[in-house]
Amino acid sequence: MNNVPTTALGLAEQGLPVLPLRADKRPFGNCRTCDDLACGGRPNMRVPGLCACPWPCHGWAAATTDPAVVGSPQWAAAWRRARAIGYHPGGAGVSVVDLDNADAVDWARSALPPTTTVATTRGEHWIYRGTVRSVNGVREGVDIKSTMSYARWLGPGTGTMADVPSAVHELVKQKPAARPTPRPVAVSAPAGGGKCPHRSPVYLERGIAMAEQRISTATSGVHAAVYRTFLAVLSAHGRCGCLTEAHIGRLFTAAQTKGESARHCTDAWANASAALGM
Q1: Which runs of E-coded beta strand occur in the chain?
Q2: pLDDT of residue 130
Q3: Rounded to an integer, what distance in angstroms lies between the CA atom of residue 149 and that of residue 132?
Q4: Is pLDDT larger for residue 66 or for residue 45?
Q5: How many CB atoms lie within 10 A of CB 192?
Q6: pLDDT for res 211
Q7: How many alpha carbons lie under 13 Å from residue 172 in its C-beta half-sphere?
Q8: Across-strand partners of 129?
Q9: Residue 28: which residues within 8 A CB-CB, separation 6 or more?
Q10: Contact 85, 4 (CB under 8 A)
Q11: 8 A C-beta contact, residue 154 and residue 192
Q12: Is the pLDDT of residue 96 over 50?
């Protein structure tokens, strides 16, 4: 039984701005009206003059504490498909130091004061009272999630919550950590065999160029943006055999230039392939 909607409703009633997440931790996609936030989506969708879209389509900005919205028929379909709950840390007045691996956790234990911690699949979330600017890649394996970002709800955690320390304020003031040097593509091109929909080689080239641009212009949620882009490319070009390792290499380079690790790129590609049954 999917207890995600019930849990989400309880969290909203306690004042945590929530939104539904897919199994791959992505928020639900923008609706046609709100594509790329053209509507100027905001967390409060009932304020006159702001977006009135009833769907949870704005990523972090869809997060709400309004039980009437969270439990509405408009959100019901998304909650039925959701496998996780996201929340807007900034909207809850907190900041999440997302530690993505054991080395990052070791760094936090030596550099940051103790606070509420929550275990994740690869590391830990350290949650502090107060908000800061969200920045990915402030250190290797360390992202700061607060304003204009979302995090996965993994439970209340343990420990007493402390105020955002000066070390975190300093990290977000600095430029993000140096991006890793792009590595050669580590996956093989799809075998193909399906019907080719391309009218000309220009069609494929335009699609790859647009995908590179979408990754390079992502302003938040880079992990999700990379996954969505890989999924779109594979959906359009992955079954006919036209997609080459050179094309995939261009996408991986764009993602790594944006801050993704080679492993995250490979995982995102594998997850997108699996989602399409490839």
Answers
A1: 18-21, 84-87, 94-99, 116-119, 124-129, 135-139, 142-145, 151-152
A2: 96
A3: 11
A4: 66
A5: 13
A6: 87
A7: 18
A8: 94, 163
A9: 19, 20, 21, 22, 55, 56, 57, 62, 78, 81, 82
A10: yes
A11: no
A12: yes
